[in-house]
């Protein structure tokens, strides 16, 4: 079994965070004989600077051939004015679409040591553990037409199209139900069926999929606006939330912010298992962005990137014990009061990106 | 000048809440000679039960002819299975569209007496005063095609279309800038220009409108997902937020929940001023829904409905002093510790819907 990792650090704090993952990979190869092979490419603004597109064909081919892609972050004010087709985000969106990474898993967990960092009252977020399952290759992100037309008279018309087919809703809800079985066995599906036809179909297909194959799982439906409210009011009521690409974008960001652990949250984007090998294409990335304001200073929090690598161990290589160990290492380091600036608290020890990475690696070794 | 009010109490707790507004109208007519004429109609599930549509042509005509519409709430489990075209929400959406109520004003304020009811830490929401200006007649709510098509093979395809024209963005952002001038003079525009063409156009037109006519107002742009995060992290950073129909739906609900005052928040939906008379068509409604679970028990909080009437006094009849007085009456009653169940706190006096309405009216009289 190959262990090909393709690293796309991207822009802003992406490269700094990725450097800490490299240390862990190197250690695992040396001490645990994991045999990870790594290659590195460009994505986002840095790719645009290098060759005028947000990701090159060559790097796309490497991503397609890899067992897993580790992705940092893209974008920054430097590229605010580049043409829409080659903006930094286009690289990420192409990866998601061409690798058919339809299932985006975004855990929103509250690290106990950080409950006080949340803007919510600590008792509402302590022990929070939600998994948002977001559809990632459909909806308004990719539907056609997607155009701006000049109507004359100084008027333009912009159009985006939200499209969902039955099979897309079926496969993403199946992922949500399957994951719920490994957790608290409850799924809440969110859409706007009172306004959107895609919401009507979404609701129907989730209901039918549940009835046909997952009736042992508890299923609720909530309107997406009410869902946003409930996330703020009482987030612990949720186990798994399944929703479409755009609602998932909004709701997972709100959920991430609730935890007070935004700089810490990883995500996995998975394709369908290959019918022959059972392998899924996969990309792992932090939920946070490229944070251009602090890039290059060595102060960024690498935990989300490291936790994304833990998800990679779990989902792409079935290295469950190693993933658990890495996650435990992160939690222990936090418990010891070691903190980057974004999660600093009174009495804690402030460290930079590299020191945080080193501390987690040391803890990982010792476990 | 006519003072024609058309009342549409709707479903669930709508009628109970509206009854309290009726008391205030009756008092104002009697004691202050305001000359309000009221008529009442059906909307939502009750309209469907009566004549098979979510609002009758007759009631639509009355809404068109009125100076202002007061709207309660629509919907409930009883009508979950009615056909899409006649579902309760269709009545509200038709009113918004046919009356061309493109500007939805949703204040998210935190009543000082309720800062502790928020799920956020009190210091983050105390004194919160945001105004969300949501575009209400465009976007994915009304764009065509909006269909579900049978593709055969058990596959269906659902399509919704997000459409925005220059003039729609221009007029809603002008409303936002004008209102900002009466407040802290700052507007934050939210869209997803990194993914949506409508976001690209939105951003451009808001920027141009600002430059052409409102350069004295501070303008920021934020991606809508980041905006949702920032609302949870530090809501007081915002003054006026301007955004499209769907993002406005999500973001205003999140903002409303932050305040801890959800049962208290009003909204105004306004049309363009008539070129001759300067009058705007308008509809006023609580942000909360029909709360079918507590309907008919006399325990619902009527404050959002009463505060919506205060907005009506302010925006439709220019009765600014009366609006201020009514809002002050609400705040005073809360300060006295008079509470409905939804905002109950230790040491407060629990009252029902009618008692709350009576207390506010008594306070209003005394001011
Ligand atoms: C960078 C952007 C295109 C992306 C998205 O909208 O999906 C991001 O917000 C995310 O959530 O991963
Ligand atoms: C009832 C529903 C159609 C409506 C909307 O989505 O606009 C509601 O959520 C609102 O925010 O006023």
TrEMBL record, chains A, B:
<dbReference type="InterPro" id="IPR024084">
    <property type="entry name" value="IsoPropMal-DH-like_dom"/>
</dbReference>
<protein>
    <recommendedName>
        <fullName>3-isopropylmalate dehydrogenase</fullName>
        <ecNumber>1.1.1.85</ecNumber>
    </recommendedName>
</protein>
<comment type="pathway">
    <text>Amino-acid biosynthesis; L-leucine biosynthesis; L-leucine from 3-methyl-2-oxobutanoate: step 3/4.</text>
</comment>
<keyword id="KW-0028">Amino-acid biosynthesis</keyword>
<comment type="function">
    <text>Catalyzes the oxidation of 3-carboxy-2-hydroxy-4-methylpentanoate (3-isopropylmalate) to 3-carboxy-4-methyl-2-oxopentanoate. The product decarboxylates to 4-methyl-2 oxopentanoate.</text>
</comment>
<keyword id="KW-0464">Manganese</keyword>
<dbReference type="InterPro" id="IPR004429">
    <property type="entry name" value="Isopropylmalate_DH"/>
</dbReference>
<feature type="binding site">
    <location>
        <position position="253"/>
    </location>
    <ligand>
        <name>Mg(2+)</name>
    </ligand>
</feature>
<keyword id="KW-0432">Leucine biosynthesis</keyword>
<feature type="binding site">
    <location>
        <begin position="76"/>
        <end position="89"/>
    </location>
    <ligand>
        <name>NAD(+)</name>
    </ligand>
</feature>
<dbReference type="GO" id="GO:0051287">
    <property type="term" value="F:NAD binding"/>
</dbReference>
<feature type="binding site">
    <location>
        <position position="106"/>
    </location>
    <ligand>
        <name>substrate</name>
    </ligand>
</feature>
<feature type="site" description="Important for catalysis">
    <location>
        <position position="192"/>
    </location>
</feature>
<feature type="site" description="Important for catalysis">
    <location>
        <position position="141"/>
    </location>
</feature>
<feature type="binding site">
    <location>
        <position position="96"/>
    </location>
    <ligand>
        <name>substrate</name>
    </ligand>
</feature>
<comment type="similarity">
    <text>Belongs to the isocitrate and isopropylmalate dehydrogenases family. LeuB type 1 subfamily.</text>
</comment>
<dbReference type="InterPro" id="IPR019818">
    <property type="entry name" value="IsoCit/isopropylmalate_DH_CS"/>
</dbReference>
<keyword id="KW-0100">Branched-chain amino acid biosynthesis</keyword>
<dbReference type="GO" id="GO:0005829">
    <property type="term" value="C:cytosol"/>
</dbReference>
<keyword id="KW-0460">Magnesium</keyword>
<keyword id="KW-0479">Metal-binding</keyword>
<feature type="binding site">
    <location>
        <position position="225"/>
    </location>
    <ligand>
        <name>substrate</name>
    </ligand>
</feature>
<feature type="binding site">
    <location>
        <position position="134"/>
    </location>
    <ligand>
        <name>substrate</name>
    </ligand>
</feature>
<feature type="domain" description="Isopropylmalate dehydrogenase-like">
    <location>
        <begin position="4"/>
        <end position="360"/>
    </location>
</feature>
<feature type="binding site">
    <location>
        <begin position="289"/>
        <end position="301"/>
    </location>
    <ligand>
        <name>NAD(+)</name>
    </ligand>
</feature>
<keyword id="KW-0963">Cytoplasm</keyword>
<dbReference type="GO" id="GO:0003862">
    <property type="term" value="F:3-isopropylmalate dehydrogenase activity"/>
</dbReference>
<feature type="binding site">
    <location>
        <position position="249"/>
    </location>
    <ligand>
        <name>Mg(2+)</name>
    </ligand>
</feature>
<keyword id="KW-0560">Oxidoreductase</keyword>
<keyword id="KW-0520">NAD</keyword>
<comment type="subunit">
    <text>Homodimer.</text>
</comment>
<dbReference type="GO" id="GO:0000287">
    <property type="term" value="F:magnesium ion binding"/>
</dbReference>
<dbReference type="Pfam" id="PF00180">
    <property type="entry name" value="Iso_dh"/>
</dbReference>
<dbReference type="GO" id="GO:0009098">
    <property type="term" value="P:L-leucine biosynthetic process"/>
</dbReference>
<feature type="binding site">
    <location>
        <position position="225"/>
    </location>
    <ligand>
        <name>Mg(2+)</name>
    </ligand>
</feature>
């Amino acid at each position: 079994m190959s262990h090909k990792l393709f690293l796309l650090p991207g822009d802003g704090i992406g490269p700094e965070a990725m450097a800490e993952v490299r240390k862990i990979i190197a250690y695992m190869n040396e001490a645990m004989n994991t045999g990870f092979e790594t290659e590195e490419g460009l994505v986002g603004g840095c790719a645009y600077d290098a060759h005028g597109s947000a990701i090159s064909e060559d790097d796309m081919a490497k991503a397609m051939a890899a067992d897993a892609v580790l992705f940092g972050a893209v974008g920054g004010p430097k590229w605010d004015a580049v043409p829409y087709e080659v903006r930094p985000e286009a690289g990420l969106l192409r990866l998601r679409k061409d690798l058919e990474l339809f299932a985006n898993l975004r855990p929103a967990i509250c690290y106990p040591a950080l409950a006080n960092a949340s803007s919510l009252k600590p008792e509402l977020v302590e022990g929070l553990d939600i998994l948002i399952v977001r559809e990632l290759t459909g909806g308004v992100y990719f539907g056609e037409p997607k155009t701006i037309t000049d109507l004359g008279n100084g008027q333009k018309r912009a159009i985006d199209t939200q499209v969902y087919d039955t099979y897309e809703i079926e496969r993403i809800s199946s992922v949500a139900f399957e994951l719920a079985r490994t957790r608290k066995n409850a799924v809440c599906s969110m859409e706007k069926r009172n306004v959107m036809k895609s919401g009507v179909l979404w609701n129907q297909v989730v209901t039918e999929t549940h009835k046909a194959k997952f009736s042992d799982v508890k299923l609720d439906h909530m309107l997406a606006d009410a869902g946003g409210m409930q996330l703020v009011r009482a987030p612990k009521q949720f186990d798994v939330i399944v929703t479409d690409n755009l609602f998932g974008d909004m709701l997972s960001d709100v959920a991430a912010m609730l935890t007070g652990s935004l700089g810490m949250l990883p995500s996995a984007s998975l394709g369908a298992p290959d019918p022959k090998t059972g392998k899924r294409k996969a990309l792992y990335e932090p939920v946070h962005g490229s944070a251009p304001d602090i890039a290059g200073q060595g102060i960024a929090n690498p935990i989300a990137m490291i936790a994304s690598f833990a998800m990679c161990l779990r989902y792409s290589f079935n290295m469950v014990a190693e993933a658990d160990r890495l996650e435990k290492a992160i939690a222990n380091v936090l418990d010891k009061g070691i903190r980057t600036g974004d999660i600093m608290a009174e009495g804690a020890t402030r460290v930079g990106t590299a020191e945080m990475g080193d501390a987690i690696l040391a803890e990982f070794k010792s476990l």
